[in-house]
TrEMBL record:
Primary localisation category: mitochondrion
Membership in a protein family: In the C-terminal section; belongs to the enoyl-CoA hydratase/isomerase family.
Catalytic EC class: isomerase
Ranges of residues in domain ACB: 30-115
Pfam families: ACBP, ECH_1
The entry's keywords: Acetylation, Isomerase, Mitochondrion, Peroxisome, Phosphoprotein, Transit peptide
GO molecular function, one term: delta(3)-delta(2)-enoyl-CoA isomerase activity
Gene encoding the protein: ECI2
Name of the molecule in the record: Enoyl-CoA delta isomerase 2
GO cellular component: mitochondrion; peroxisomal matrix
Length: 385
């Protein structure tokens, strides 16, 4: 389980390996089945994700200790609070049922993760060297696709790093234009809220500091990107995936797309230079509706307010957009790069200063109880946008 980094925090105890035997006739798992299932978990090659790990933790505790008997952790103790919630949710579920559910969950997990690992070799993901993105370069266009569709393309720490790596590569490759889009029904649901659960030894303060450094570097890559950068917004966009649109040169949207920056709801504050770009693009009142009151815009509204360049019916979106992009990519690349420089360069210094200030304000916000409560509520399934 070396590549299963977060499982240790669930404190699952290791047991000796014994042969798996499901007592299906009796429909309850034996102690041996249970111990085997625990061993199987440790042999999984892929991380099943935090939600499954919490379910496993809860079922393990219920099966071994019965109903939740721990005092409720404080709101700032994010990980223990999530674990407590998961266990407590099981109420008075009998130990035998919890044991059976644990064995069943591990069994389904082993088969689903095995089958997904069987299709991996030779796929795009492996050949491009990205785990969270698909990156292609063809016909003068480098296309970066956010590729965590099951998580609505939420941006986890790995994806932040991979987007930066892909942008740096695209700025130097022989393509003329660069496109960012999403795979699946969402463009992106914004920052992956589980990013907040991986607390380093220095505690939440260190986490907030590291996140602010990461965010500043991430947004900086968009400010400095030298070639025309186009967003192809295929579906709903949330949080940072919306705010950085102000740093793109052109934004095309499907009429299925929505634009949502619920920072106050999350106890957070604007980033991606939106506290500056949105005011310039749509004026202070409309920017306040979005950034302070979290008003969600339709694609048509976002277009009317200047955040989106053009909206297309979803049925013809890809065809119409890519026809345009292919034509743009045939224009002389140096002329396009220099024109972008002329248009954008005088704002760069200002944008970097705005970025630095937004990150420093956010660093404080992330430590607020408003923010921590919002994250805990999402992770414990008590809230959704
Ligand atoms: C370090 C730099 C920080 C930069 C600061 C950035 C700030 C922001 O971006 S703020 C915006 C943060 N985003 C959110 O608050 C969105 C949270 N997600 C939701 O409210 C909903 O998931 C939804 C409205 C986006 C979609 O709802 P629905 O259609 O019902 O789909 P599910 O909720 O079932 O989602 C499927 C699957 O994906 C997981 N997921 C979706 N978004 C996120 C996310 N942002 N972070 C983490 N996980 C996310 C969701 O939990 C589901 O997972 P499973 O249950 O495991 O299937």
């Amino acid at each position: 389980m070396s590549d299963f980094p977060d499982f240790s925090y669930l404190q699952v105890i290791s047991f000796p390996v014994v042969q798996l035997h499901m007592n299906r006739a009796a429909m309850t798992a034996s102690q041996k089945d249970f111990e085997n299932a625990m061993n199987q978990v440790k042999l999984l090659k892929k991380d099943p994700g935090n939600e499954v790990k919490l379910k496993l933790y809860a079922l393990y505790k219920q099966a071994t200790e019965g109903p939740c008997n721990m005092p409720k952790p404080g709101v700032f103790d994010l990980i223990n609070k999530a674990k407590w919630d998961a266990w407590n949710t099981l109420g008075s579920l009998p130990k035998e049922t919890a044991r059976q559910n644990y064995v069943d969950l591990v069994s389904s997990l082993s088969s689903s993760l095995e089958s997904s690992s069987q299709v991996e070799p030779g796929t795009d993901r492996k050949s491009t060297g990205y785990e969270t993105l698909m990156v292609t370069s063809e016909g003068g266009i480098t296309k970066i696709t956010l590729n965590r569709p099951a998580k609505k393309n939420a941006i986890n720490v790995e994806m932040y790093h991979e987007i930066m790596r892909a942008l740096k590569a695209a700025s130097k490759d022989d393509s003329s234009i660069t496109v960012l889009t999403g795979n699946g029904d969402y463009y992106s649901s914004g920052n992956d809220l589980t990013n907040f659960t991986d607390i380093p030894p220095g505690g939440v303060e260190e986490k907030a500091k590291n996140s602010a450094i990461l965010l500043r570097e991430f947004v900086g890559c968009f400010i400095d990107f030298p070639k025309p950068l186009i967003a192809v917004v295929n579906g709903p966009a949330v949080g940072i995936s919306v705010t950085i649109l102000g740093l793109f040169d052109v934004v095309y949207a499907s009429d299925r797309a929505t634009f949502h920056t619920p920072f106050s709801h999350l106890g957070q504050s604007p980033e991606g230079c939106s506290s500056y770009t949105f005011l310039k693009i749509m004026g202070p009142a409309k920017a306040t509706e979005m950034l302070v009151f979290g008003k969600k815009l339709t694609a048509g509204e976002a277009c009317a307010q200047g955040l989106v360049t053009a909206v297309f019916p979803d049925s013809t979106f890809q065809k119409e957009v890519w026809t345009r992009l292919k034509a743009f990519a045939k224009l002389p690349p140096n002329a396009m790069r220099i024109s972008k420089e002329v248009i954008r360069n005088r704002e760069k210094e200002k944008l970097h200063a705005v970025n630095a200030e937004e990150c420093s304000v956010l660093q404080e916000r992330w430590l607020s109880d408003e923010c921590m409560n919002a994250v805990v509520n999402f992770l414990s399934r008590k809230s959704k946008l």
